[in-house]
Specification:
Layout (H helix, E strand, L loop, with lengths): L6 E5 L3 E6 L3 E7 L2 E4 L5 E4 L1 H6 L7 E4 L2 E2 L2 E2 L2 H16 L9 E5 L5 H13 L5 E5 H8 L10 E6 L4 E7 L2 E8 L3 H16 L1 E2 L2 H11 L10 E8 L5 E7 H24 L3 H10 L1 E4 L8 H9 L3 E3 L6 H14 L9 H5 L4
Parallel strand pairs: 1-9, 9-10, 11-17, 17-18
Antiparallel strand pairs: 1-2, 2-3, 4-5, 4-6, 7-8, 11-12, 12-13, 14-15, 15-16
Helix pairs in contact: 2-3, 4-10, 5-6, 5-7, 7-9
Length: about 350
């Protein structure tokens, strides 16, 4: 049986979530690390590091050890994972935890190995690397073991993963490097070019959450935002509206929709019929963006449903995968279907 210190990790570009059996999500913090350039020592990790962004001396730099869902800085990634493991289960381990960690679909074997090795060096025992759409489907409560197609669109921080899943496996998928961070970049660019105000990444993220939209039908709203005036070089405050957010974000949303259409166009006919009947399931933080579900539904003609608590789906799914797998230790050559058969 699964010991309580075995965990599932959603190792995201923008945030890390950790799931423990019988506890649920036990950690959820930004995947940001601050490092002292002089000593090369870690100053802060997670939420504490995020609070330091833009407020540190020049020798303290913020590092995102994951870019577009893969490891970009091995040593910092290892230390960040150790921080989250320790935070989730403490440092007094009876045994090294078994960890299920998620990666985008379509990553290379080398990229998968980097994630696996970083997790092992961080203190894990056995490591299972799972593709994010599979974990997202499990976390959303989809029975992936049946012979029918389910289309999952997981819009994260660094990547959007789109996959058709049937009989416990991915039939067709794509992973595009267009996601939440790209919406932030689009907002930064728009405010700079159209309003002559320079804002930070955190401000762009807040704008996205508060009044961001990819629908022209969104009721008008506005909020104030502060930054540096490009002309005077002095602090300035402006009012930004939902109409401006739509102009800034629409192109990025369209690119995600095109990726969804691309997967649908290459899906086998029988599975396409299943998807038309069952609909598209949206997960990830990006699925909460105002208008994204309606946009995908309008462009594809397939109904869209946003999963309950979509931000946590991948982490929950990773933990569930690990639970069910550990319940079958006597079957090393297990199949996903036999693993989840009791759901039927």
């Amino acid at each position: 049986m699964l010991l309580n210190n075995d965990i599932g990790i959603d190792l995201g570009t923008s945030s890390v979530l950790v799931y423990c059996k019988n506890k649920g999500i036990v950690a959820q913090e930004p995947s940001v690390v601050t490092v002292d350039e002089n000593t090369k020592e870690i100053v802060a990790i997670g939420e504490q590091a995020r609070k330091m962004l833009g407020k540190t001396p020049t020798n303290i730099v913020a590092v995102r050890p994951l870019r577009e869902g893969v490891v970009s800085n091995f040593e910092v990634t290892e230390k960040m994972i150790r921080y989250f493991i320790d935070k989730a289960i403490g440092t007094d381990w009876f045994k090294k935890p078994t960890v299920a960690v998620c990666v985008p679909s379509r990553v290379t074997d080398t990229e998968k190995m980097a994630v696996e090795q970083a997790t092992k060096y961080a203190g894990a025992g056995r490591v299972h690397v799972i593709e994010e759409p599979v974990a997202a489907a499990l976390g959303a409560g989809i029975d992936i073991t049946k012979p029918c197609g389910s289309l999952v669109v997981d819009i994260g921080g660094g990547t959007t993963d789109i996959a058709v899943i049937s009989l416990g496996g991915i039939v067709i998928s794509t992973s595009v490097k267009i996601a939440g961070d790209n919406f932030n970049d689009a907002i930064l660019t728009y405010i700079s070019m159209e309003r002559d105000i320079l804002i930070g990444e955190g401000t762009a993220e807040n704008l996205k959450v508060v009044i961001g939209t990819v629908s022209e039908k969104t009721p008008y709203a506005e909020t104030k935002v502060s930054g540096i005036n490009k002309n005077t070089k002095l602090p300035d405050t402006i009012t930004v509206s939902t109409e401006e957010m739509y102009k800034a974000m629409k192109k990025t949303a369209d690119d995600i929709v095109e990726a969804v259409i691309g997967v649908l166009e290459n899906t086998p006919p029988e599975l396409s019929a299943d998807i038309l009947e069952r609909g598209i399931v949206l997960t990830g933080g990006g699925s909460l963006l105002e208008g994204i579900s309606d946009l995908i539904e309008d462009r594809t003609g397939v109904k869209c449903v946003t999963a309950d608590d979509p931000v946590k789906c991948v982490a929950i799914g990773a933990g569930k995968y690990l639970e069910y797998k550990e319940d079958e230790p006597q079957q090393p050559n297990f199949s996903i279907k036999s693993l989840f058969g009791f759901w039927e």
